[in-house]
Amino acid sequence: MVALTLKLISFQALRxxxxxxxxxxxxxxxxxxxxxxxxxxxxxxFQALHLSSAPSDGSAIWSNELxxxxxxxxxxxxxxxxxxxxxxxxxxxxxxxxxxxxxxDRLYPNPTSGNLTLVTEVPVSGIGEIKILHLGGGMVRTxxxxxxxxxxxxxxxxxxxxxxxxxxxxxxxNGAFTRWYRISKY
Length: 186
What we know:
mainly beta
């Protein structure tokens, strides 16, 4: 018998006052025993916030949403997925915010006619990847650059792109930290 690998299809978290809304979809969830929602003040040292047992119906895909009370000082969250074989898998680390990009992030000017500046706080150092996707569908471009732990100021050149709505994804260390931003180009 070959064990199938868990695959995290999606993961979102959004702070709403004293709680966090978690939403995730996991493929091959029949191999999953439990998911622990974890929180951290510094993005490195995580503590369990809530434990969710996997469904026992043998479903191949598990989608779940829940609200979990979270102390105000918790700024980062992730999922710790434990398989039936007791293997541990971790989601990307998310910086809590109350919108698609965190409250502490600044993206300007938005809308833009060309050059864009992103100021963001990142909990890990590593190779960052910026992906620009057109909202109408499809990857426009990707760019790799070094990212330091803490505050980062990134310049993104959009001068050669046509007018439209774009999504920008910043991921660091192969998805250990991922953020999404929406921008308008005129």
